[in-house]
Amino acid sequence: MTELQIPKLASLSDSQLTASLAAIADIRECYRVLEKGGLNVVGEVLKGQGPFYEMDHYPKEDVYDRDTASQYYYHAHREDHAEHGHFHLFLRNAALPEGAEPVLGPAGEDRVAHLVAISMDAWGYPTDLFSVNRWVTDESWLPAETVVTVLEEFAMDHAYPSWPVNRWLTAMVRCFRPQIEALLYHRDEVISKRQEKGLEQVLEDRSLEITGTIPVDVESWADRLKAEQSRRNQGSRLESTRDYENIQGH
């Protein structure tokens, strides 16, 4: 199996560090207002939806933001006792690059690209990010190098079914963008390794469902990001001091 390379902090740009830390602040704020009311992310999505059935989408008919062409739903079907269910996040045609036609799946104005899935525990907190084969979500199969260029387009900018949940999902994509990119590129590598069967056959291979998983923890990621940011700031100060001393020496 192709090894999934988790991005090294040193490889992240300063702007990505800043963006991830800003997104963590949003995530914490969502948790704060939900916990204050005794609520959580998963409970908000299932609220008023009746009995929870495996494979059904929640909320019913999915959630769309027509202005940003973003979409998501929550469901459960994996035999994993640690997972309550997971979110699937998508971008639809209007947010996808023009002229990027899929190898397989909905085309033209019906294009829809799967970005990432977020596993949730029974308490409503994320445990993992994972990527999937095409047949799992019936997406338009676009290469990772195309999908990663539009990750920033994902934004749920309305209050249905829950403003904190929509803000949280938007922030999760910003926060863990390096991991999502890694999952998408790794997904393509896994598919490529099996292409002796033919690409379309691999994309429809029911024996290949999940192509990669990365555990996530918001607070430990925040600690690592802050440590890296501090290291860079210290390096910048040292460099500035050396520059000043060189000028004084002349």
- Mean residue pLDDT: 92
Number of helical regions:
8
- The sequence of SSEs as H and E is HHEEEEEHHHHHEH
Number of domains: 2
Q: Classify the oligomer.
A: single chain
Q: How would a crystallographer describe the biggest sheet? A: 6 strands, antiparallel
Spatial shape: globular
Secondary structure class reads alpha+beta
Query: What ranges have pLDDT less than 50 throughout 5 or more consecutive residues?
Result: none
Instruction: Estimate the helix proportion, in percent.
Output: 40-55%
SS elements, strand count: 6
Strand order of the largest sheet: 1-2-3-4-5-6
Strand-residue proportion: 15-25%
Rg value: 20 Å
Distance between the termini: 58 Å
The gist of it:
By secondary structure, the chain is an alpha+beta fold. It has helices at 14-36, 41-46, 134-137, 144-147, 163-175, 177-193, 199-203, 218-249, and strands at residues 58-65, 70-75, 85-92, 112-120, 126-132, 210-215. The model has no long low-confidence stretch (mean pLDDT 92).
Q: Could you explain the architecture of this structure?
A:
- This protein has 250 residues and is an alpha+beta fold.
- It folds into 2 domains: 11-216, no CATH class; 217-250.
- It has 8 helices and 6 strands.
- A 6-stranded antiparallel beta sheet has the order 1-2-3-4-5-6.
- Strand 1 and strand 2 form a beta hairpin.
- Helix 1 packs antiparallel against helix 5 and helix 1 packs antiparallel against helix 8 (218-249).
- The longest helix has 32 residues, at 218-249.
- The N and C termini lie far apart (58 Å).
- The relative contact order is 0.17.
- The mean pLDDT is 92.
